Amino acid sequence: MNFDDLANRYLDGQASAEEVRQLEEFLLAQSSSRRLFADLANLDSALAEQAAGWEPQSLTLPVKPMRTTTARTWLAAAAALTVLLTGTWWWQSATQVHATVARGIGINAFPQGMEIHGKHYSIQAGTVEFITALGAHVVIEAPASFQFESAQRLHMKHGRVAADVPPSAKGFTVITPTGKAVDLGTKFGVDVPQQGQAEIHVFQGEVIAQSAKGGKRQSLRDGQAYSLQSGAGASREIRSAAFIQPDETQSLQAALSSGQRSQSDAAIAALRKDEALIALLDFEDENLPPGTFRMTQGRWPGTRAPEFVNVGDHMKLNAGAEHAWPQLTLAAWVRLDRLESPYQSLYHTDGWDEDKRGQVHWIIKDDATMRLALKRNTLPPDSGEKDGFPDSLTPVLPKNGRWVHVAVTYDADARRIRFYLNGLFDKESLQATAHPALLGPAQIGNWNSKDRKLSGRVDELILLGRTMTDAEIRALFDAGNPYH
Amino acid sequence: MSPAEAEQHQRFLRTLTAHEPAVRAYVRRLVPSRADADDIMQEVAIVLWDKFGEFKEGAEFRPWAFSIARFKVLSWLRDKGRDRLVLSEEVVDLIAEETAQDDTRLERQRRALESCTQKLEPDQRHLLMQAYQPAASIQSIATTSGRTVAGFYQWLHRIRRLLQDCVQRELAKEEPS
């Protein structure tokens, strides 16, 4: 093979080991070969540069002339340097359309159809879905700081992004401060916290993860997650609930534009006036309960919800200690991942002591059904319960993490427990012995005696000292439902 | 950002923008693929900014940037060279050394290329630009253009040769006769 062919094949990544060796011989032998080789590589680089500024359809509008303010806008954004600098020809990219807005949810700055250039954006609230020039669906949830460097390269300084990448956009890459994820055509998410390492979660297909500083390329497949640490990464548990998925955005937006938000607010306001209310946590005021957790966006744009991620994460709540409660309703909106551990705590009073008759443990089990256990309550001999406790029937976790509403009512006098999922009655379980519910010091998302960590977000948690009717629970769900 | 920092930052951006294609082309001739060059460029840009305070106004930016890029390339080669088909360090060193002096010529070539790609047939140009998109799938581009992958690369080689000939002609026009 002649020198010209060898050089071309090498530059196209097509050369075999043997061909690379032959090319080396040519290059070592003569400076004229090296010069020709540099010419060809130079052409290759210059063509890539042209391609980066190239408008795919000749029908597109002429490229807008660069405004002199661009440099100032860049600077004003005071974006992370990496974001500013790593742009491949970001100068041109400032005028190219890399993506368009499919929908902005609770964020006016991103109207539908808006064209996204190489500008750097920071969003404080809401969720935006983009469609890249090559057809990838990309959902970014606030708070986030990001920039499309091209249709195929998204820089995330922080925030959460979920992408659904069709074959046409194979190779779509998310670049984070601690490494990058290259998608090979599938569904994946990247979580870039304000502090700490970015995490890559693969829901379907394959993604190549690479840490920034000399990390090896790591291939990740369905259901695998990986944290990008400098130099090396580490496997993590998959957290699909951490990401707003492209198949979810449409109904989130529809709910918001049909006025769900004000319904939800009205329902909460009414509950606050309910005389039987023991606790209502919507996490919107500055005084959060103590514990170890992250704050993320709640069901509505700009609202807040705690998220439990690591072993030991929890939130403390001390409410309803003044007396025992013959009637009780527990309800919450949750966005959870299924974990392997047998029990995950929605609400666990501290300890599990013989003398604390009626103390409450509200659990999601590893089969994704709910359990409401009260200390020293018993089942009747003919009970259909298989596990010795009142359990719900229908798994409460959807395949992909989405917001779901879980509720349970307890009536000690009627010795009755009723489970609800998304506003619908699921199952009733009777007790032989039924003590009034004992509340007080408790944890949400974990248990103080043993690890029962939940993985995901909790929003609008309610403890009510009476049993809500089926219709009330239905109304609570309808009012608070973020989907339409 | 203080006004002084902002001004420094702005000066850096202007300088980098002016020299980026040259530095990128320099890195490109030392590593196997454009994607590798892009990765290294990111790191180079960060180091350039970090050390920009040491860089004297009025000094030659390009040789300074080349030396930093060269250092990054060599560490990349040591890091990645084991599991990739890369040229030996000896060859890379030679190319780096000789072509750094050659930059004026290469820059003129890059400039001349612009008018040469304009001369291609529109659908040829379209295909070429597609093939040069970051992370382009040659497989699917080849298929849609009715070629095998091998055939597509053959076509690409031919187009590059055409462009190189055109570039030489363009540059010859500039020479004083």
User: Would you identify the CATH architecture of the largest domain in chain A?
Assistant: Sandwich
Specify the number of helices of chain A: 9
| Mean pLDDT across all amino acids of chain B | 87
CATH superfamily of the largest domain in chain B: RNA polymerase sigma factor, region 2, helix turn helix motif
The greatest interface between two protein chains, and residues involved on each side, is: A-B, 63 and 64 residues
For the record, the CATH class of the largest domain in chain A is: Mainly Beta
The value of Rg of chain B in angstroms is 19 Å
- Derived structural class of chain B: mainly alpha
β-sheet strand percentage of chain B: under 5%
Distance between the termini of chain B: 53 Å
How many extended strands of chain B?
0
What is this structure's SSE topology?
The complex is a heterodimer of chains A (484) and B (177).
Chain A: H1 3-11, H2 17-29, H3 31-52, H4 69-77, H5 81-85, H6 90-93, E1 99-105, E2 115-116, E3 120-123, E4 127-132, E5 137-150, E6 153-164, E7 173-176, E8 179-183, E9 187-192, E10 198-204, E11 206-211, E12 217-221, E13 225-228, E14 233-236, H7 249-257, H8 260-272, E15 277-281, E16 291-292, E17 294-297, E18 304-308, E19 314-319, E20 327-336, E21 343-349, E22 360-365, E23 370-374, E24 404-411, E25 416-421, E26 424-430, E27 440-444, E28 456-464, H9 470-480
Parallel strand pairs in A: 6-7
Antiparallel strand pairs in A: 1-2, 1-4, 3-5, 4-5, 5-6, 6-9, 7-8, 8-11, 9-10, 10-13, 11-12, 13-14, 15-28, 16-19, 17-18, 18-28, 19-27, 20-24, 20-28, 21-22, 21-27, 22-23, 24-25, 25-26
Helix pairs in contact in A: 1-2, 1-3, 2-3, 8-9
Chain B: H1 3-28, H2 34-50, H3 61-80, H4 89-100, H5 103-118, H6 122-131, H7 138-144, H8 149-174
Helix pairs in contact in B: 1-2, 1-3, 2-3, 3-4, 5-8
